[in-house]
Amino acid sequence: QVQLVESGGALVQPGDALKLSCATTGFTFSRYMMTWVRQAPGKELEWISSIRAGPQITTYADSVKGRFIIYRDNEKNTLYLHMNDLMPEDTAMYFCQTVIGSNIRRGQGTRVTVSS
């Protein structure tokens, strides 16, 4: 059974750093592109970063480029998002996801709140 479980969300202050994790089971993690998306209160889901399988090519949304780093540990079947210089506008529920066949698989999310 495919499972993605995010963790690491917290209440932090502007300028702080935070690392999110996404532990996965039920599929061959190393073979799939993985993605972080987020949903701020009252807003639509926003893509923020992806990392490809194989050569770990990464892409970022402009809103997080230079502040966030996506990486993966294929031995641990885990995806990470290291977030630096957090801003109030980064407040959101963060989800990891992948596409298997034609299905988007997404975890339950972890909440990040950036507030002074």
Query: What share of the residues does DSSP label as strand, in percent?
Result: over 45%
Number of helical runs?
A: 0
Low-confidence stretches: none
| Global mean pLDDT | 97
Q: Sheet with the most strands?
A: 7 strands, mixed
| Estimated radius of gyration | 13 Å
Please provide the count of β strands: 11
Q: Which structural class is indicated by helix and strand composition?
A: mainly beta
What percent of residues adopt helix (DSSP H or I)?
under 10%
The topology string of helices and strands comes to EEEEEEEEEEE
Distance between the termini: 40 Å
Shape: globular
Which characteristics define this entry?
about 120 residues; four-stranded antiparallel beta sheet; 11 strands; about 0% helix; globular
Summarize the structure.
This protein is 0% helix and 53% strand.
Structural features, described:
This protein has strands at 3-7, 11-12, 18-25, 34-39, 45-51, 58-60, 68-73, 78-83, 92-100, 103-106, 110-114. Strands 2, 4, 5, 6, 9, 10 and 11 form a 7-stranded mixed beta sheet that branches. With 116 residues, the protein is mainly β.
Secondary structure elements and pairings:
Layout: E1 3-7, E2 11-12, E3 18-25, E4 34-39, E5 45-51, E6 58-60, E7 68-73, E8 78-83, E9 92-100, E10 103-106, E11 110-114
Parallel strand pairs: 2-11
Antiparallel strand pairs: 1-3, 3-8, 4-5, 4-9, 5-6, 7-8, 9-10, 9-11
